[in-house]
Amino acid sequence: MPIAILLGLGAKAESDLANRPSHHDLEGEHDHDDFDTFIIDLPAFASPQALVDRMVKAAEAHDVLRMKGFVEIEGKPMRLLVQGVGARIQHQFDRKWPSDAPRRGRLVVIGETGFDKDAIRALIQG
Fold first, then answer.
1. What are the DSSP E strand ranges found in 1-126?
2. Rounded to whole angstroms, how far apart are CA atoms 61 and 56?
3. Residues near 61 by beta carbon (within 8 Å), at least 6 away in sequence
4. Partners of 72 in the beta sheet?
5. Given phi > 0 = left and psi -120 to 50 = alpha, else beta, which region is 34?
6. What is the pLDDT of residues 12-46, one digit of tens each?
7. How many CA atoms lie within 13 A of 100 on its CB side?
């Protein structure tokens, strides 16, 4: 079988969307109120692990679904990118901080509606 067929190359599936309804088409009006999100302003941390440890505690204690953001690590010229699904946290330095802007860390937190934002913020900010 040709590789183009196996990979679906040139299938033009998007040109036939009207004939392939999704579950959204069949449900009528609905919303996504099951999830809530908020942003935490982050201070500088002494090490990446110091932040990761706090993120893991918050995720485990409050059923956080997703976190993503960046933070300043003391003495490092680059910002630390962090992202997590549940308590599985990954991190890496991604780029230098702009010289003409403040080093301001922020973390987006997503969870089910009703999770304790204040408790999560306190665990992560310290």
1. 35-42, 64-72, 78-85, 88-96, 105-112
2. 8
3. 119, 123
4. 79
5. alpha
6. 666 665 666 665 555 555 555 789 999 999 999 99
7. 0
